[in-house]
Fold Fatty acid desaturase.
Amino acid sequence: MSFLDHVLQPPSYGWKDSNGELVKPTRSEILREFFKRLNVFRDRKNWLPFFSWLKVLCLIPFFFIFITSYFTWWTLLATFIYSMIIMGTHGTIWHHRYCTHRAYKFRNPLWRFLTQNLTINVIPEEIYVISHHVHHAKSDQPGDPYNAEAGFLYCFLADVNHQPISKTLSESEYNRVKLLMQHTGVPANSYAQYKVWGSYVNPLYAVISWVLNWSFWYLLFYLIGGHALACSLFGAAGFWAIGVRTFNYEGHAKGKDKQRQGIDYSVNDKSINQLWPGIVAGEWHNNHHLFPKSARSGFKPHQVDLAWYYIKLMHMLGAVTAYRDDKKRFYEQYHNPYLKSVRK
């Protein structure tokens, strides 16, 4: 078995059956797994998925305060921009293109830290990064932690049921996890600490960084627009935190073949390019599956890529020293040959 075959903690219902086919658990099986893995009293190694959802739960009251007490046209506009554009684009910039794919390099840790904390902290890097490597290695196959063919709930609750790292890694295997994470700046547990907590990140670091990040952003938003703006934007972060869990289900066409010629060129998976996620977050997902290490995914003129614009700006300012841009390869290997074929 390769490292990526067992780096994630398998669900109790397994990835595939005896015939090698994808296991499609029932809704009740998925929910039982979800609540079992959130139970920190049963096993403290469940702390990270519990912590991830605790942050979501802490954001939900802000959303209701926004709706009931501060709902105006200007707060609605601010909420829309923050949740749909700023949070989404930051997720692409930080978690997706940098933490997972190392599509660009920072000049120093200060710029990395500033980029990491550009928005309200929601998703733990560890849960996203390791599982996303597996996703690319096994896209739409058994073992893909958010395989759309297994249904909406399978993807929506994947951060708890399928994405945490295995709790039984050997020391050499854990060191490989550290190699995949060390560039993010998130400090690693020692192997002895990993055996206690079942995670790469230490709980103390996770809690302290969460408190400092939220305190900074609430204070800044309050100074700009009072509790109205602060509660509205924290509520927006909660809205995004729930909505982003639907992306891979939609981005892989709900497990169906919806790819279009001349638009979706990565044919070894079910990923598709979608206009809305592309425009608001730079998530031209089929393009990304073609060139996952590219700092740009919006290759065509109409494919707005706000994440790429940020990376390019940081490069112009000297904060980013290098990046990979596969736009030229996209045209040479895929788009131009397609145009020639349809003209014949």
User: Anything to note?
Assistant: The longest strand covers residues 320-323.
